[in-house]
Amino acid sequence: MKKVALTFLSILLIQSVSLGIEDVKKVYLQEAITTAVENNIDLQAAKLEINIAKNNIKAANRLQNPSLEAFYFVGASGWSEPRQLGISQTVEVAKRHARKNLAKSSYKLVEKNVNYTKFDLKMDVREAYINLVATKSVLETLKQQKTLQEELLQIARQRVKAGNVPEIDVIQAEIALNQMITQVNSAAANVKSSLSDFNKIINNPQNIIYDSMDNIFSEENNFDEMLTPLPTKDFPQISQIMQKALENRYDIQIAKQEVDVAEKNLTVIARQKIPDIALNSGFAYQNANHTEDGRFNGGAYIGASLVNIPLFYNYSPEIQNAALKLQQAELKYESAKNKAEKDVTSAYDKFLIAAENLNYYESKILTSSEELIEISKKAYETGKSDITSLIVMKQSYKSIIVGYTYALAEYYNSWTNFLREVNDENFTL
Question: Which among 142, 150, 143 has a CA at the least distance from the CA of 170?
Answer without folding.
Answer: 150
